[in-house]
Specification:
The longest helix has 23 residues. The chain is of the alpha+beta class. The chain starts with 16 loop residues before the first strand and ends in a 9-residue tail after the last helix. The chain contains 18 helices and 22 strands. Helices cover 31% and strands 24% of the residues. α4 crosses α6 and α15 runs antiparallel to α16. The radius of gyration is 30 Å and the shape is globular. A hairpin with a 5-residue loop joins β18 and β19. The chain folds into 3 domains: 98 residues, Nucleic acid-binding proteins (OB fold (Dihydrolipoamide Acetyltransferase, E2P), Beta Barrel), CATH 2.40.50.140; 260 residues, BirA Bifunctional Protein, domain 2 (2-Layer Sandwich); 134 residues, GAD-like domain (Gyrase A, domain 2), CATH 3.30.1360.30. Bound molecules: aspartic acid. Aspartic acid binds next to β21 and β22. One of its GO terms (biological process) is aspartyl-tRNA aminoacylation. This is Aspartate--tRNA(Asp/Asn) ligase.
């Protein structure tokens, strides 16, 4: 057995005989003396072999990078002047006495002992090597500290960890299901859970009162940069608590987590209604580290001849908004062109702008291709409304409200990042008062959260005017990322049926898909609610990583494949026959 981890050795161990187990990080031959840097999960220590110990010297000479060794030796101070202040073990070294090679290693596909630019594909294909890198080890260990803290907090607050099935029925969280064919029920499929939503509600009906689970969830979505087909939620459900009480318990948990692990005081989280978030930031997960806001100017431009602005200003579904960038007049034409290209991703047909050179000169002091179309008066009124100052640049979005919100919302973040406009390191908030439904783009409505979210009105009111109704949902947002979201749920059948009705789900369909839930609601379902946090995103933010793949041990690629195991893979004809499945080749 080892006596110490490599990374733990310090001055106070000088004189001790020790045993280390680890990997050869690097081997150097310095004129007849062999130096091995030996690495384990706690760090690296330098070991020296003198030629006077013939046997171990020869062995040390023969090892290569990533060989696994057992080593006995004694700790001594490094000779004066050779200490390494950059290494935690840099004051000492180990004089190697006995060396045993526990396993050899082929030359690794990429070097670990020096910084090398390695493509993510190569890293993921050889993830077991990649995971040896200290920075990834640090992140995964930090992840473990996070879950440890959270489990502790929840257990101390009366929450019970209960596992829910992975082979189950579809849960409508808005993504496609991963399906698993059943061998014993021909032509039938399990769905992997998009979340434990329905089971956690059933647990409340069963009287567990407070549930949590660090749960794997599966969603077959078109993948964006920070999504994974399987990911982990900190899933929570409670009975008899109001939204404010649920918010308070979970906010205390996240505040405690940041304070304990990062020594950061997040303070009390502000609450912002969804409508205000969209109005001021064009987003339901506003990044409040940046001060810029979207300002409506439709009333000022509704009557101008410039149709690009006037038409959306007169359209009830349109929006004309301005985004004033402090100091933005320094942006070059090329930068503005790049931003124009950027907003086109969100469907914006262009990006109008006005540079504020000198307000004292009135409209003369404005530089812009559009002032002549808007008229000088209107242009100056807009400057006044947005509070523009000399040296600023004002961008405009004019289109359907959805496009303006998405385009200017994203532009706000990009400009904020590019011009380093962060005013603080952490900006948490709760977004509340979400609409219950949104347009599904096909003339119907779809649930903004999921169809088990409680509306803030009676079933009759909901059916009469579903469009404007709010739900009892809440999202926790941190630095523009949705960390978690949840709601108070529907706990009576009548309301659940009303919601299904608005969503166009027939009684038969509801019975077929969620009969078990409707049935459970008949037998004394308590008022209940909860939420789920995305663990991967939380770890990503707390470790300052740029992708969630950096904080997942074995992540999938953007095309939802595992390069390490080569999954998904083909299966044998016999397996398919057993499942009564015939694979049709894509035409
Ligand atoms: N099940 C929801 C989700 O996965 C979270 C919740 O409402 O508790 O987004």
């Amino acid at each position: 057995m080892r006596s110490h981890y490599c990374g733990d050795l310090r001055k106070e161990h000088i004189g001790q005989d020790i045993t280390l187990m680890g990997w050869v990080h690097r081997r150097r031959d310095h004129g007849g003396v062999i130096f091995l840097d030996v690495r384990d999960r706690e760090g690296i220590t330098q070991v020296v072999f003198d030629p006077d110990r013939d046997e171990s010297f020869k062995l040390a000479d023969s090892v290569r990078n990533e060989y696994v060794i057992e080593l006995r030796g004694s700790v001594r101070a490094r000779p004066a002047g050779t200490e390494n202040k950059d290494m935690p073990t840099g004051d000492i070294e180990v004089l190697g006495k006995e060396l045993r090679i526990l396993n050899k290693s082929d030359t690794p596909p990429f070097q670990l002992d020096e910084h090398q630019q390695v493509g993510e594909d190569v890293r993921l294909r050889n993830r077991f090597i990649d995971l040896r890198r200290p920075e990834i080890q640090r992140k995964l260990r930090f992840r473990s500290q996070i879950t440890h803290y959270i489990r502790n907090y929840l257990e101390n607050n009366g929450f019970i960890d209960i596992e829910t099935p992975i082979l189950t029925r579809a849960t409508p969280e808005g993504a496609r299901d991963y399906l698993v064919p059943s061998r014993t029920h021909e032509g039938h499929f399990f769905a992997l859970p998009q979340s434990p939503q329905l089971f956690k509600q059933l647990l409340m009906v069963s009287g567990f009162d407070r549930y949590y689970q660090i749960a794997k969830c599966f969603r077959d979505e078109d993948l964006r940069a920070d999504r994974q087909p399987e990911f982990t939620q900190i899933d929570i459900e409670t009975s008899f608590l109001s939204e404010d009480e649920i918010i308070s318990i979970t906010e205390t948990m996240i505040r405690g987590l940041f304070s304990e692990l990062l020594n950061v005081d997040l303070g009390e989280f502000p609450h912002m209604p969804y409508s205000e978030a969209m109005q001021r930031y064009g987003s339901d997960k506003p990044d409040l580290r940046f001060p810029m806001e979207l300002v409506d100017v439709a009333d000022l431009v509704a009557a101008v001849d410039f149709k690009v602005f006037a038409a959306p200003a007169q359209d009830p579904n349109g929006r004309v908004a301005a985004l004033s960038v402090p100091g933005g007049a320094e942006l070059t034409r090329k930068q503005i062109d790049d931003y124009t290209k950027f907003v086109s991703i969100y469907g914006a047909k262009g990006l109008a702008w006005i540079k504020v050179n000198d307000l004292a000169q009135g409209a003369e002091g404005l530089q812009s291709p559009i002032v002549k179309f808007l008229g000088e008066d209107v242009a100056l009124k807009i400057m006044e409304r947005v509070g523009a100052k000399n040296g600023d640049l004002v961008f405009f979005g004019a289109d359907k409200a959805k496009i303006v919100n998405e385009a200017l919302g994203a532009l706000r973040l990009k400009v904020g990042e590019d011009l380093k406009m962060h005013q603080c390191e952490w900006a948490p908030l709760w977004v509340v008062d979400f609409p219950m439904f949104e347009d599904d783009g096909k003339g119907g409505l779809t649930a903004l959260h999921h169809p088990f979210t409680s509306p803030n009105c009676s079933p009759a009111e909901l059916i009469a005017h579903p469009e404007g109704k709010l739900s009892r949902a809440y999202d926790m947002v941190l630095n523009g990322t949705e960390l978690g979201g949840g709601s108070v749920r529907i706990h009576d059948q009548e309301m659940q049926r009303a919601v299904f009705k608005v969503l166009g789900i027939t009684d038969e369909e509801a019975e077929e898909k969620f009969g078990f839930l409707l049935n459970a609601l008949r037998y004394g379902a308590p008022p209940h609610g909860g939420l789920a946090f995305g663990l991967d995103r939380l770890v990503m933010l707390m470790t300052g990583s740029s992708s969630i793949r950096e904080v997942i041990a074995f992540p999938k690629t953007q095309s939802a494949a595992c390069l390490l195991t080569d999954a998904p893979g083909e299966v044998s004809a016999a397996q398919l026959r057993e499942l009564n499945i015939k694979v049709r080749k894509a035409p």
